[in-house]
Amino acid sequence: MFALSLICGMLAFFVLITKMLIPSRKYILLSLELCAMFMLIFDRMAYLYRGNTTELGYWMVRISNFMAYAFIIGIICSFTLYLMNLFKYDGGIEKTPYRLKLSCYVCAFAFLMLVVSQFTDFYYYFDEFNRYHRATGFMICYLFPLIILILDLSVIIEHYNRIGKLMRFSILLFSIVPLIASIIQIFTYGLSLTNITLVGLVVLLYVFALIDMNDMIERANKHEIEVVRKEQKNMQLLFKQTATALANAIDAKDKYTHGHSRRVAEYSVKVAKFAKKNEKECEELYFAALLHDVGKIGIKDSIINKEGKLTDEEYGAIKTHPVIGMQILSSISQSPYLSIGAHYHHERYDGHGYPAGLKGEDIPDIARIIAVADAYDAMTSRRSYRDPIPQQLVREEFVKGIGTQFDPYYARIMLHLIDLDSEYTMKESKEKCTVESIETLVCESYRSTFSDGILITNDVIHIHLCSYMSDERKQENIPSFVLFDSLDARMHDDERKRRDLLYNEYAVIRSDGKVIPVDVRNFQIKTNETAGASAESKAMLRGEIIGFDIEAMRYKDHVLIRLSNRFRFHEIILALPDSTRFAYLSITGEYCVIEDVDFSKTGETIGEGYIPRIAEEISYINVPQGDIPNVQIDGWRSDSSEGIELTDGMKLTFHSVSLPTARLVWHCPFVLLYTSDDGQVSGNNYRELTVVRLDGEGWEEDDNSENRVNVSKLDSFVDWNDWKAKNKEGQDCELLFRIDKERIIITTEYCGLSICCVTTVTDSVPKLYTALTGDQCAITNIHIIR
Fold it and tell me: What share of the chain is helix, strand, coil (3-state, %, to 5)?
């Protein structure tokens, strides 16, 4: 009992110094703990002086028993007050339940009866030996606490869901357990079961109150943190929306640059991610790029929208926009990167840019990235004086600009992004310029309206459309599909554009299954009829809406198109002139309406033998082979040689020739450095360490390798046109491989270039392999010299 009383005293002290409790609840808990402490002390004193016949014993026994009973009533009364406070502040009950008030009245009456019993011996009495005995009214003494606890329990049950789980549990225990203990106490003597139970529950009540208080504080903190986060998110959203609105206002000044700032921001982030910039740096770069042209606000609209050539004075005015942008954005002191991007994005790596003429790494990093993204979007967007430049020609411009206009590191990343963008998605988007966004094509005269081209590859694509004849109904007024190649993936009838964009039309496939060949080596048509051609024609002439389903796929130089409707099914195979050029399918027609166009990839990929061959395969490697088979690469890394295990001092010699369709600098051989379980390219656990192109480009493909390529031009190097011509003629090449611990060194001299690639592997690899690949080239007579 003394130990429990000490615990209650300590808890009373903790309650007193606690600042997080509601003041009223704090004093109620304090009274609970103090009542429990003194009740135990007096209960124990009653036992200690029981039977002591001295004068001190006489008074101590009587005072201790009275106080023990009084503090029991005090504990129960304090608990009732605790319930009132709990339901008011946590349960939201403004008006105190009447039963709790009644409990307080019963407590007062119980105390009054206790006082009366001291003079009447109604509850208990003491014999001549100063020993405590129960009297005839002893049951009444226990009846009052039982009534109070029952009243309290009824209120708890009624409002059970208004308070937290922990508090529910503690007050239920306080109401039920003493009831049980009191009933047991009636039939036992000499054991203070009720007292000890009450004290234990008082301790638990404080502990649970403390836990609940901590939970409440934690919830409040979480809520506060969530509010702060929400505010920060709203501020970020507001900043983004404001920056975007400002960027749109800038772009709106020039009718040809709609969306330019947003695209530059997106391209900049792509470059930054490949450069392994962290999330914060990418976010800063996004907004700096979004606002890089803010200085154009200070340039006259007449200059910005002038369609002809600018005068020197007008060009000088344009060149002031970086300084104006810096002045506008420098007031945002918490985001200095904004003004840096605006100020320096027209600096050139060779120092010939403006406004400050900075050179190399003196140009801020953020501005060097924006310069690359800005130039890319400028070239791939429509201008008043030209259409978008085809991506392959853009790539060549970047190759030429490495180290002069552009930072070599970021320019090479942009080249890599271009190479990955096989379907040319990184470009300005026009409304309804892609097949996925077509709602309706209203075709008048033949080919007056057409969609953008859909790239046909070995991934099977499915197109669904509906069509009906317009007012002028003739049998030829039906949808058609044009199979072609062009640098910009669009059909062209203008001769100059056809020449400039290397337009080549293979064939026209009509929806009735007829093929009009233009530049194919052979074609084959198979038709299965259900209702028949006549029924189809009559339905079209009546103006009925006909649904068409088209499947298109390609393997090397063969294209397969399946065309069906409810009347007929056509399977068309076309043998293209070669395997290197692209094949696009455009939807057009004559005096018909085409609507509800839906385009998707089926997820199926075809391989060799799927399309029956109807023309001999065109090969440029039917010559004697060396140590491993010859390899013809029709497209970007479309094939590769067998893998060769790498050893120190190994030499690899071969002959390379660009294919007849090759026209670009990177249409040349590449060298792969990799590891895999079976030694083959794309084999089990394939891991690519680097790719070295013999035009001098290299790319780090692996997170655990560092790649550095040094390229110098020899005296025999004339220019890049001469370099491409030599590749067309055919060149012999020798590669030397050296392994120096974790470094792999590849050196060669090719067409006037001296190339040295050093790849450092930062982790262990079981075996290293090399293989030859490329783009639009044939590699023959491969020899391995160890």
Answer: 45, 25, 35
